[in-house]
Write a structure and sequence with these properties.
With 118 residues, the protein is mainly alpha-helical. The protein has two helices and two strands, in the order H-H-E-E.
């Protein structure tokens, strides 16, 4: 009888843990779907911007490829990504990484070298 009560309690605990995992999995799946939609939208916007530039400013696809390579090489690696970089706070001069929006030492906003800095 005690063994049955223990097993019942153990099974109930496992059922609760399973429900928590299921809820978390659902949130992660939804986050992934949202991220995929954002990436697809950004790809569409980038393509539209490129086509406008190409048509209006007489750029060529080769110009875009050269600029992509130049930006990719800024961190010393050709890997198709803009990497986190070390920036200096304009207020206190301390170093911070480019993922931060504010200096961790003085709280001042960190000025970004470009709009798409990670």
């Amino acid at each position: 009888m005690i063994w049955q009560a223990y097993q019942h309690t153990d099974i109930a605990g496992l059922a609760n843990a399973t429900e928590k995992v299921d809820r978390k999995t659902g949130r992660v799946e939804e986050d992934l779907r949202n991220t995929q939609r954002q990436v697809e939208r950004l790809s569409l916007v980038c393509q539209a911007m490129w086509e406008l530039l190409r048509e209006q400013a007489d750029f060529k696809d080769e110009d875009l490829e050269e600029k992509i390579l130049e930006i990719d090489l800024r961190d010393g690696k050709i890997n198709g990504r803009i990497r986190v970089t070390i920036l200096e706070c304009g207020n206190c001069g301390r170093k911070t990484n480019s993922k931060r929006t504010n200096c961790i030492m003085c709280g001042a906003p960190i000025e970004r070298p470009h709009q798409f800095e990670p």
